[in-house]
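=== How it folds ===
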Amino acid sequence: MLWPVLIFMAISLAIGLYTYTQVRGSSKNYTVCGKAMPFIVVGTALAAQAIDGNATLGNTSITFGQGLWSGLAIPIGLAASLFIVGRFLAAPLNQMNLLTLPEFFYRRYGRVAELLASLLTIVCFIVLVAGNLSAVAWILSVVTGWSYGQCLIFGTTVIFLYTIAGGLYAAIWTDFLQIHVAIVGFLAAAGYILFTRGWNNIAAALPAATLSLDQLTTMAGGGLPNWANMISLAFGNAMALDFMERVFSAKSPDTARRACYYAGVWTLVIGSCASLIGLAAISAVGNVGDPRMVLPAFASGHLPYWVGVLVFLGVLGASMSTANGAMLVIAVVMARNVWQRWNTKPVSDSLMLFLSRALALPTAIAAAWIAYVRPDPGILLVVAFDIVFAGCVIPLFFGVYWKRATQAGAIASIVMGTLARLICYFAVPAVWAGLDTLLPPVVSAIAFVTVSLLTEPSTELRTESLLVEAMEG
């Protein structure tokens, strides 16, 4: 499978480098493609961000080791997030003509809240990039025989180069190739498994606990952490910088909303296929020293050659697309929402474009280092969205739908939610794992509502403000 993998990466690199011509020296083109993308483009790009190495390679290994519902928690959470964003956030945020998600915090709450949201999402997405770089490196190490570290450097370099070339154009153009290979590969693999083995035979060979709903309904079966993972992904992913860049690039609010639903369906379908591979591998692969080897071992040893190749390429492409999109938007947030906002001198468009490209380098290095020391794709995804679920989700939703939200409330919510998550990490015992994810957003919500009500302007001041806004148009 070496040559198909290398050719696939070469084609992705070539497409990404070509998109340099589409940027035309504009930082807006680089960031949101001029805000003119149609439904199928935005929907495909959103699907490519959700269907990543965590939802495929990580999902399969978790299903193999912990059971069906533990693995499915990842694609279910990601798909639910797309449906939630589509229903509640896509249209209003697209209408605001934003360039980055932290910009919403600036317009709604001021630059301190924007800075806090920027820093948290930067940390979150560096961890997300790390999870996908880990998946890329692992697939490359399997097919090339190189060490994990060598493949990590190679994969990171390729993704970095085409990311800085075309920005969001590079992400979207390469997404079309990468995600459709993943869709074909995982659908073909699932079809082959069901046709040759049959669901009844697969289920009969599984330990009873593997399919048991105890994984969702009992503490002993892992119900609390599994629900915590799904809820964290469903709501925490609403703060996903890469998702929102695609929502902002849509040509209309309705396009953005429908694209989210389209991507959510594909995320659920492909995630289910990856879980099916994990179930089939239990009897076919047997004992595996490293859970990440489950999918590669099954694809290379128990699927027809070209189906196995497409699965390999699917995981590789899905991971590359997410790493590329996240790496891009982290650098853009650092340039726009941190550097530009707190710089006393005006930042020209050409300098903004340069910074958006240059800051991708430290992002890539930091993510690669995390991927090297913690090569665990599935867990890294959940950790990433735990961070923003704790502090940023409440101000986002309340900022869109609650007119009485205040700047002080948002800052208190972000700070208290994040501190609560840090405290819970150390204070919650292992037997209650999952509460450390679910409790901090509750603290964040209480802080937000309480402080907002205490700092809400008086009726007279609000009336005066509305009159001034009306006179100024």
Residues 466-473 have pLDDT under 50 and may be disordered. The CA atoms of residues 409 and 454 lie 9 Å apart. The chain has 25 helices and no strands.
